[in-house]
Amino acid sequence: MALKTFNPTTPGQRQLVIVDRTGLHRGKPVKALTEGKSSSGGRNNNGRITVRFRGGGHKQAYRKVDFKRRKFDTPATVERIEYDPNRTAFIALVKYEDGELAYILAPQRLGPGDVVVAGEHVDVKPGNSMPIGNIPIGTIVHNIELKVGKGGQIARSAGTYAQIVGRDQDYVIVRLNSTEQRLVHGRCMATVGAVSNPDAMNTSIGKAGRKRWMGWRPHNRGVAMNPIDHPHGGGEGRTSGGRHPVTPWGFPTKGKKTRKNKSTTKFILASRHVRKKK
């Protein structure tokens, strides 16, 4: 889909660039496939703020998206493509031959009337889903499982994809957008194609109020505070912090590695953090 700009009638309109959603469904989602979604305001079960600068925002209904695709060998027709406020990608409403309705992540080049199917061995075309071990090398895929039967976890955001680059016994070697190469078990499901709405990264919010509609509150910088409020605060005139970037509680941030799950390190063949030697 193309990007949409506006005449500069206001300062916000002047800079606003959004995705043109002309081809999307204009009505409400299927009620049976939605559920209520409460806003936490960045607070945990104790009522304490664990994520700063969250709160407010427009009311949203959560769409139940089928990330597992375990209804095998039952063709489904795409009824329409819809906007989903909970993610950057678009979703597709599909209707199976037995009448069941479901939402799936919409890949690029999928439109109303197209037929998608999941199974052990199906055609390699956008929207079809099968175990990643049965997909040919070189294929672009998305919505990749990391644990068999858990549902897709990798490449679900707008415009993202991964490429199958090889095989290693029961595992498949997948190259992600971050350049990381990772082993995924061949029984894990993946969907053919790249995720829809690749222009999401080229949009411009246009004004601060639009960010408030999304549930984000103003983000105040540490260097603009006093020393009592933040480690970056204080100093005569403007300073750049005077130390390596840290959180308000003194923990290193902005580039500091935080990965602690050593049990899955063996599945990473090439880290995205390793610089290529010339």
Strand and helix layout:
Layout: E1 3-5, H1 11-15, E2 17-19, E3 34-36, E4 61-63, E5 76-82, E6 91-96, E7 101-105, E8 115-116, E9 129-131, E10 140-142, E11 144-145, E12 152-154, E13 162-168, E14 171-175, E15 181-185, E16 189-192, H2 208-213, E17 268-270
Antiparallel strand pairs: 1-2, 3-4, 5-6, 5-8, 6-7, 9-16, 10-13, 10-16, 11-12, 13-14, 14-15, 15-17
Walk me through this protein's architecture.
With 278 residues, the protein is mainly β. A 7-stranded antiparallel beta sheet has the order 9-16-10-13-14-15-17, with no helix packed on it. It is globular and about 70 Å long.
How are the strands of the biggest sheet laid out side by side?
9-16-10-13-14-15-17
Structure annotation, total helices: 2
Termini separation: 38 Å
What share of residues is helical?
under 10%
| Gyration radius, rounded | 22 Å
The general outline is globular
Largest sheet: 7 strands, antiparallel
- H-E string: EHEEEEEEEEEEEEEEEHE
